[in-house]
């Protein structure tokens, strides 16, 4: 059993930065950790993902601005978000899934919420212009 708790959301001016954290209880083993976001009235979309050996993938809209990392023990997953803009305003979720599947450069764009088994409760990010 894996439990996930996000933190670090908040309100920020356009151009600013936030770092989201996802605290992990339980062992991830070969699960990858994904970050998703969902704006009101929109579908939940993948943003970034990291697998159990550190390979990462990002959707085009966040490449060069967002960075996903884990601590060595995989107890915490981070999403560093820089150069934020109003389009980044969403509820952000971390999730564990994609058991045993290696992350490739296209994974973030193709992964679906149904690929993920465990979810956090979400943390709100609001960017004002």
Walkthrough of the structure:
This protein is mainly β and 129 residues long. The chain has 1 helix and 11 strands, in the order βββββββββαββ. The radius of gyration is 13 Å and the shape is globular.
Measured between the Cα atoms of the first and last residue, the distance is 40 Å
Structural class: mainly beta
In DSSP terms, counting alpha (H) and pi (I) runs of 4 or more, how many helices?
1
Main β-sheet description = 7 strands, mixed
CA-atom Rg in angstroms: 13 Å
What's the overall geometry?
globular
Summed over residues and divided by their number, the pLDDT gives a mean of: 97
Identify low-pLDDT runs. none
Oligomer: single chain
Give me the count of strands: 11
Fraction of residues in helices? under 10%
Element-level helix/strand string: EEEEEEEEEHEE
Strand percentage, roughly? over 45%
Can you tag this structure with a few keywords?
four-stranded antiparallel β-sheet; seven-stranded mixed β-sheet; 1 helix; 48% strand; mainly beta; 129 residues; globular
Helix and strand topology:
Blueprint (H helix, E strand, L loop, with lengths): L2 E5 L2 E4 L4 E8 L6 E7 L6 E6 L5 E3 L7 E5 L5 E6 L8 E8 L9 H4 L5 E4 L3 E6 L1
Parallel strand pairs: 2-11
Antiparallel strand pairs: 1-3, 3-8, 4-5, 4-9, 5-6, 7-8, 9-10, 9-11
In a nutshell, what does this entry contain?
The chain is mainly beta and 129 residues long. 3% of the residues lie in helices and 48% in strands.
